Amino acid sequence: MTSSCSALKLLLLSTPVGPLGSGLGGGVELTLTNLSQELRRRGHHLCVAAPAGSVLGDVPVIAIAGQLQPTAHTQGRQTPTVLPDNAVLANMWDYARQVQDDYDLLVNFAYDWLPFYLMPFFRRPVAQFVSMGSLSTTMDAAVCQAAAKFPDSIGVYTRAQAETFPCEANWRILGSAVDLLLYDFCAQPQDYLVWLGRISPEKGLEDAIAAAQRSQKQLKILGKLEDQRYWDQIQQDYPTASVDYLGFLPTAELQFVVRQAQALLMTPRWIEAFGNVAIEALACGVPVIAYRRGGPAEIVQPGKTGWLVAPDSVDGLVEAIARIDHLDRSACRQQAADEYSLEAWGDRFEQWFREILHSDEMTNSAG
Ligand code: HBI
Hints:
Bound molecules: 7,8-dihydrobiopterin
Strand order of the largest sheet: 3-2-1-4-5-6-7
CATH architecture of the largest domain: 3-Layer(aba) Sandwich
Helix content: 25-40%
């Protein structure tokens, strides 16, 4: 019997697209890092199963061998789902099958068909954290069928993300969080803008470079260089732009660069499920200038902690950059503290887990 105050035994299953710490997992890496830290702080016991080579601070990681999964966000909507030979995704879930009785709950962070399809095959309940919006018909079907069979078990970052799926469901809106202790407020910025994220077409980096160039501002770029061709094309298209690519940096070094920026530019081409980089910037006191699309549109307080701009409008970005001085850096830090603390976020996850376990017990006791 899982009472409301007992410690939970949780197995968290990571994204199969790259080892934790490689940057290939994008926002999920930060989500897993923060969630593991916060749940352990609350006394829960957890292990994380992830591709070999993963590091997650001092959290016990079970390294799973096998071939990485092709990333979903570069496939077409109709692309058939593939499983490479010796797929790490399949190996992760075979491991989960073997050890499931050692845990109260399994929590999946892979945006892949298999973990959703396998839910009814497991004795222990599986909580599904959906880390992106709708990308393919296969994942839409997997998510919506799981939501129909296990109505309490589907968690998302934001409502905007949930609404991209073609089904009504009892979505659990969990939001996100940052560990404020890792981010230092900066009141007096340097004269540059910053852009954070995987360098990949859906992130729209070229718009940020165009807007910075037209505003005669330097743009510092941080994140995993995921798509070399895309990056090469950008450099050809903007040969004279003042950009400074600093690579994929760990949080301590990332925030040292971000905190001194006048603003963060967010230029997503797709519906960003959340946009963890937005709350990392706010935590440093850095306002966010973002396309009015997806998660960032639910985060930015226009005229106070940032500006929201018509999607794909470089002109809009340039106008917003000209009005950075209207924004309040202290209010940015305050919003991060008020709305995106690990404490509030941990409460939402814990409540979600207990409700899944409660309904699972009810189902089982009903026989
Ligand atoms: N693609 N197939 C697949 N599986 C994932 O878990 C996945 C992905 N692409 C991107 C990704 N995860 C993360 O970077 C985002 O969820 C943040």
